[in-house]
Specification:
YojJ-like (1, single chain, DNA polymerase, domain 1, 3 domains, 16 helices
Length: 359
Amino acid sequence: MAGDIDQEQVLRETLAAVAPGTELRDGLERILRGRTGALIVFGYDKSLDSLLSGGFALDVPFSPQQLRELAKMDAAMVIDSAASTILWANTQLVPDPGITTDETGTRHRTAERLAKQTGYPVISVSQSMQMIAIYVAGRRYVLEDSNIILSRANQALATLERYKQRFNEVAGNLTALEIDDFVTIRDVAVVAQRIEMVLRIAAEIRGYIIELGVDGRLLALQHDEISAGMDNEREFIARDYLPGTGKRSRKLQATLDALAELSAEELLDFSLVAKALGHPGTDLELPLSPRGFRLLSKVQRLPAPVAERIVEHFGSLQKMLGASIDDLQAVEGVGENRARTVREGLSRLADSSILERYV
């Protein structure tokens, strides 16, 4: 799993480096418009020298114009991983021919083999097909026009808005049930499912934003506005309903990892979501009692360490809701003003929940 995450990170960093608005993307577009091909190794260390044959060691500052002119020599180029220096030009790449490849063209076969052998991204600009392909992290990724990516991204954004609206509905319902102490495993699984669905579509949109570069600025603002705070919501749900207490309590990260590892199909099964949360999936109607992290997070100007101590002191949301200002002041770091703020904040949440149910 960690290896997959690392490869995904390498791919995203490479896509960010060639996104619209970068000098490297400008240089690649110039090569395309000039109807010449190119083979560019994106990164360098001394071990790469044995895979280079001939050419010129340049060590000159990178510029889109320089890249375009050097591409006319048809052989490969090597630039540093910061895309700030052109290190080699007109060199032949000689990767291990025993490395498997599904490509047919000489340039693309060389690119894929070298990327697999060195771990460095290799960019191939095809003269005949008029496309830019990146070989990175064991994958071949073809750069697309921004309009095509934006179309997909806007569809994903509309889905994100629907998912977030549905999350707000089920989260409001959970708040009402928590205040009345009628929560079941199913209720928690429903909210956890919706959080995961929002986070996954948000992650997909972040990929589009990276690939779009400067063309994705408006999309980024919309994405951030809709998905803000969802990571915290997932953590609060997990902490509120971790099974066991004290040393027997399930670790938070294990719960978050278990939720993240559910496939799209598994996420639709509430019993599997319940198991990921550490609860039995055989009876979804079993009652649960929250610790109160999620509702305390909605109290304004309440520092997280203080919220931690309040939860630790009272142990459950119901005891917290029944606590007086004097009871709250018994918690370390909670003076009279803060106790009053917590008491009033929780009361407003309870009143608001009741109002929403009957309006």
